[in-house]
Amino acid sequence: MKICCIGAGYVGGPTMAMIALKAPSIQVTVVDMNATRIAAWNSDTLPIYEPGLDDVVKQARGKNLFFSTDVVGNIQSADIIFVAVNTPTKTYGVGTGLAADLRYIESVARMIAEVAGGPKIIVEKSTVPVKTAETIKEILSANTKGIKFAVLSNPEFLAEGTAVADLINPDRVLIGGERTPEGEAAIKTLVDVYANWVPRERIITTNLWSSELSKLVANAFLAQRISSINSISALCEATGADVDEVGNAIGKDSRIGPKFLKSSVGFGGSCFQKDILNLVYLCQSFGLPEVAAYWESVVLMNDYQKKRFANKIVRTLFNTVADKKIVVLGFAFKKDTNDTRESAAINVCRDLLTEHANVVVYDPKVPAHEIISDTLGKGVTNARLTVATNVYEACKGAHAIAVVTEWDEFKTLDFAKIYAGMPKPAFIFDGRNILDLAKLTAIGFRAFGIGK
Ligand code: UDX
Ligand code: ADP
């Protein structure tokens, strides 16, 4: 069997590497029109940082895992084609800022229709709005050659930073397809691929729309938990309660559970905001404004939390950060990834720059040029924004430190040494609640957490 995956990004790359590793009899080729990205997948420095991924790729690459720019050739020879191209939020026209931009999906569907020489199973892997499979099906069935295509939805639930562990041991694999004999046969083919390593009882099959909607709803529920605890963090700061203590107490209720109750400077990543806005757009389109408003509030609370963090820094530093040096520790949207999409750090840096602070950013994995372009826009520079390669050097002479990503290395910094090099009073704002505030206070810092 041959699998081709179109899109060598954060989803396509790791997922296909795992299929290749666990199903040695299947030949897996990941294709992308971005030649630089493909070259990186074929090199010793993979284009994405993900713990454990190097090993997985090294074991399978060249045996049954290949990375190529030959999109057409690999479409033609594949039995199953995964579509893992990007689906960003629309920045123009109808649905601007809410709806998903499906042009990459559509162009892939058109290309498959044009070049495929025989029947194929098309698997939607990218997160897409409900009913996208319908669009893909329509484009494919309009091909002039009378070829039969089956379209499946198989959303990916891996989280960045833990992708390899999530792929090896997923809570569930979800496969949606048409409940026709052809659809059922296609579902069975894909179930058998995953059954190479995933226990059958964890492979769930549904109709197409349930599968597409479940992905959006899973992300909306996870993000909702973060916004819920973040809303409580503001109340904790006002009342003297401690948000970690509240989170721990409520999480012990087995009906609530302990995960995704960590208050933070705000959630980021390519999925949560995009998928909720997609859900909002879907509800609006189906005439359900109350449902749309309910889910939109999750994103609004997240915006409020990011703003509140930056405002707190300004307010605490005597209402002015103009010309003060502020060190931002971490720029990725979470630890163990080099991905910065929708990272709270972007908003925090922008807000501090608006207040004319001198912002110095340090992140162990995000390249300097990306930090600058994410914050200011492509090609734009600002003398007030610089990137450091050494935390201790960066903190010398700083008025305040803001921890924005929970990288493990920040927990073991020598804060006494850092404190000695800062003007007094020295401030530290822990946007991830990873530091021991009592210890920092004992050193002399004026230390603040979220919801503390
Ligand atoms: C998410 C979903 O978890 C995953 O199933 C889906 O496939 C893609 O979207 P991801 O965005 O990669 O994955 O990471 P996740 O671990 O969910 O974190 C998202 C954001 O929420 C990060 O910014 C993280 O720091 C933040 N977060 C997470 C919190 O602020 N508090 C928490 O308790 C958990
Ligand atoms: P995700 O996080 O969903 O994996 P990425 O943006 O990291 O998203 O990856 C999507 C990839 O899909 C990009 O590398 C992009 O070049 C690729 N892509 C988009 N459209 C096409 C296409 N028509 N043919 C081949 N590759 C494509």
Automatic annotation (TrEMBL):
Keywords, alphabetical: NAD, Oxidoreductase
Annotated InterPro entries: 6-PGluconate_DH-like_C_sf (IPR008927), NAD(P)-bd_dom_sf (IPR036291), UDP-Glc/GDP-Man (IPR017476), UDP-Glc/GDP-Man_DH_C (IPR014027), UDP-Glc/GDP-Man_DH_C_sf (IPR036220), UDP-Glc/GDP-Man_DH_dimer (IPR014026), UDP-Glc/GDP-Man_DH_N (IPR001732), UDPglc_DH_euk (IPR028356)
Pfam families (UniProt xref): UDPG_MGDP_dh, UDPG_MGDP_dh_C, UDPG_MGDP_dh_N
EC code: 1.1.1.22
Binding site for NAD(+): 7-12, 32, 37, 85-89, 126-127, 160, 271-274, 341
Residue ranges of every copy of the UDP-glucose/GDP-mannose dehydrogenase C-terminal domain listed in the record: 327-437
Residues binding substrate: 156-160, 215-219, 255, 262-268, 333-334, 432
Enzyme class: oxidoreductase
Single biological process term from Gene Ontology: UDP-glucuronate biosynthetic process
Stated role: Catalyzes the conversion of UDP-glucose into UDP-glucuronate, one of the precursors of teichuronic acid.
Family: Belongs to the UDP-glucose/GDP-mannose dehydrogenase family.
Protein's recorded name: UDP-glucose 6-dehydrogenase
Species this protein is from: Nibricoccus aquaticus
